[in-house]
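=== RUN LOG ===
request id: a7f3
mode: sequence -> structure
chains: 1
length: 338
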Amino acid sequence: MSILIALLVLGVIIMIHELGHFVAARICKMPISEFAIGMGPEIYSYYTGKTLYSIRAIPIGGFVNIDGMEVESKVRNGFNSKPAYERFFVLFAGVFMNFILAFTIIFGSLMINGKAVQSTKPVVGETLQESKAYKYLKPGDKIEKLNNISIEKWDDIGKALKGNKSKEIPVVIERKGEEMTLDVPLTLVPQREERILGIIPEFTVEKYGLVDGITTSFKTFGNVFVDTVKGLKMLVTGKVKADEISGPVGIVKIVGQASRGGGLVLLWLTAILSINVGIFNLLPFPALDGGRILFVILEMVGIKVNKKLEEKVHMAGMFILFALIIFATANDVFNLTK
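=== RESULT ===
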């Protein structure tokens, strides 16, 4: 089941990426010979006279064949015959769609699930199991006094405990309409050299407004984007060990673990993976969208590279990418056998 879910997640991410190239090529009126959902043997196809739309047996992503990308191609309105800005638009569109998919998932999740807001009332939401107060204070208890100090709001609890060196403290609570006094033991926090009750306040869920939802979604997207770039930087600079690099098998394992956490966790993982795929494709590496974009940008600033040389560079990059995938997959299998 984990494998099927992983194939579905990766399939959606890659298909959305290819759909971006497809739509952009259509806008630029480039001829497209095929748009496929999935890989491998064809199981269904429909030909419009210009484009073959197909569904293939292996449900992993898909691909789009834009005519005129070959070096010697003479196709009318083909990819290489178009202005540099149109080629840039088509190449960037796949990455853009990955980012749109991720943002849509983040925005939808936030709008549907809302945000957790801490209550200001001095009511126990949860008592930490590792705290000594776990057997004394229950969710729903309203704290009225701590060490004979009246408690009006949640922040008063910290103020009442500040500087307290006692191992236990008298606590007046209201539980199910009944007032009671308990001698509650405090838990020492060595790092801060202070004692705490070890309780968490109640939280309520509030819905996001449209503007607040969009703003928070952009911030969340930005945080994931920055973290992904930092991770890639660590990989390039050698701060990530070779045996920590994960490939397709590792992704299947991660997706499987996420699926056990429920649909929401799986959706968030899909958003994170989509951002990762987008950023990876933007890298200025031969054969990737970023590598092809780099050559287009060079052309736009007046530096034109021989197309045959460019194609050889991309071919070399493709072999390197395949080698990296094989290495990462072997690494995954080795880690599973540990």
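=== NOTES ===
The first helix runs from residue 2 to 27.
The radius of gyration is 28 Å.
=== END ===
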